[in-house]
Amino acid sequence: MKNLTTNQIREKYLKFFEQRGHKILPSASLLPNDKTVLFITAGMQPLVPHLLGEPHPEGKRLASSQKCLRTDDILEVGDNRHLTFFEMLGNWSLGDYFKKEAINWSLELLVNEFGLDPKNIYVTVFEGDKDAPKDQESIDIWIDAFKNVGIDASLGNRIYAYPKEKNWWGPVGNSGPCGPDTEIFYDTGKEHDKKFGEKCHVNCDCGKYVEIWNNVFMEYEKTEKGEYKPLKQKNVDTGMGLERMAMVLQKKETVFETDVFYPAIEELQKISSVEYVYQKHSYRIIADHIKASCFLISDGIYPSNKEQGYVLRRLIRRAIRHAKMLNTKKDFYVPLVKKVIQIYETAYPELAKKQNQILTEIEKEEEKFSKALSNGLKYLKNWGKKMGAQTIDAENLTEKEFGELAFYMYESYGFPIDDTIEELNNMGWQFDKYQVRKVAEEKFEKHREVSKKGAEKKFGGHGLLLQTGELKAADEEELKKVTALHTATHLLHQALREVLGKHVQQKGSDITAERLRFDFSHPEKLTEEQKQKIEDLVNRQIQKGLEVKCEEMSLKDAEKSGALGFFKDKYQGIKKLKVYSIGDFSKEICGGPHVKNTSQMGKFKIKKESSSSAGVRRIKAVLE
Predict the structure, then answer these.
(1) 362: phi then psi, degrees, rounded to nearest 5
(2) What is residue 605's three-state secondary structure?
(3) Which region, left, alpha or beta, applies to residue 274 given φ > 0 means left and ψ of -120 to 50 means alpha?
(4) What is the C-alpha separation between 58 and 24, in angstroms, rounded?
(5) How many angstroms separate the CA atoms of 161 and 124, rounded?
(6) Is residue 406 within 8 Å of residue 421, measured between CB atoms?
(7) Closest to 237 (Cα-Cα) out of 64, 82, 359
(8) How many whole angstroms separate alpha carbon 308 and alpha carbon 521?
(9) Which side of the chain, N or C, has fewer Cβ within a 10 Å radius?
(10) What is the pLDDT of residues 449-470, one digit of tens each?
(11) Closest residue by Cα to residue 248 from 81, 44, 16
């Protein structure tokens, strides 16, 4: 076995497949194009349209190391294997090679390039059921592949069959492409822990066998009627966890002892009064969450109370809370951020470019959370003492009551829901944590809807006598004014993106007959020079007398055309959407209405620029 660094593993993997005709793709952003999900969670996610048959511009053989973020198990981070941020190595065949090449290359890479002993490699395959037959083809290929490295294998000997729950991928939703997979495991040599069962097997959770690679063979399509039919285009989709492979090759007990984690943990030990051996859980949480935060901020996500920003806020605040348990100083994260950037400077140089921004965002969040943390923990401890004394009531507490407490902590102290749940666990309370989270999130959603309705009632201070498309006004004269200001928001949006960068996204707007208000993602105050550039750019488009055109198309076609649209969840299920183009300058999905020509708008003037919320700025402007 070769003791390779994580960078060497990534490099060897990509070079291996490049030599076999694969085009190496750069990692996509953690922000997916599919707005039904918050983050990229697997290497294949950015390629879904091409796995469904859409031609890829780079060809039929592809490979990449994809940044991924998963938060389903955020409360489990701190054990020996769960992570939020990780990299997924993958190679894909879009209707090109299939099982024989994929399996043989897998074993060749593991044995020849990574130096794994083939005696310690085991695989699983699909055992077959009423929907699809046993994957005998993969079994036969594996037998030959093992024979080539001097290993005698057969079904039941090194090759094991499992049902759909273990060896079948997909489909996403109720219908679509799917197929059997074959998973590759490495025997670490550890003794079997009988608390996971009397006998060990390759899919046992005791840790003796570690899954290091998965080859998915998309050869079926599940219809809406539940039938499985052969696919015309058969694809290969593989995934290898980079950190997990590093753990195996570097002979470490957990991923947190590998070279992409432990240097940061060592930095943390220098400023902590509690040694790693006594508080591994907190050290691991901090190392994981700070790393994830670095990558999220570098991809243009900032702490907030919504969607991706809320997840980032949870990660930073949870890291802060555990840092306090280690008695670290206020700016504990600074050496960790610098170490993360150093570790990844070759593979992800954009991190170094965003270092100041990353440090600034974490610092701002720490300042906001410090007082709330102290007061919130004090409240929780007092609540715990009170309820602990009232043993009869305490024993009868329901998940609903715990959920209401979690929501109260969020409302009053800014505590992320999962942080409250974790604190309650530490205090010894027994409850269904998923049910508690559900109750708290339902209350949060209800609260948000009430707030939204209240805001709609106050729209512009008007009686809402007229409503056309997305605009409301009291009479026809006001409607003309808000229509022109609405068109101005589109020009402003594009101007912001050209002057400040493509990370700018609309976060909200409010228009009255007198002014427009536009909220957008950006981490810092605009300079006078930036504001002047934006203002001038908008006015140049107005002076050009650009024609405003409206087209109707599907969401997919709108996205292909390059139209902006950051509230796509409300477009789902609508067959035809309106897309407004202002010359060649701006193009957005929008309900309208707009002026017919920018010459009808007047002079654009920014009146005020300020902070709206964390990572979100607000501009108020008029048309003179």
Answers:
(1) -70, -40
(2) strand
(3) beta
(4) 9
(5) 6
(6) yes
(7) 64
(8) 12
(9) C
(10) 554 444 343 333 334 334 444 4
(11) 81
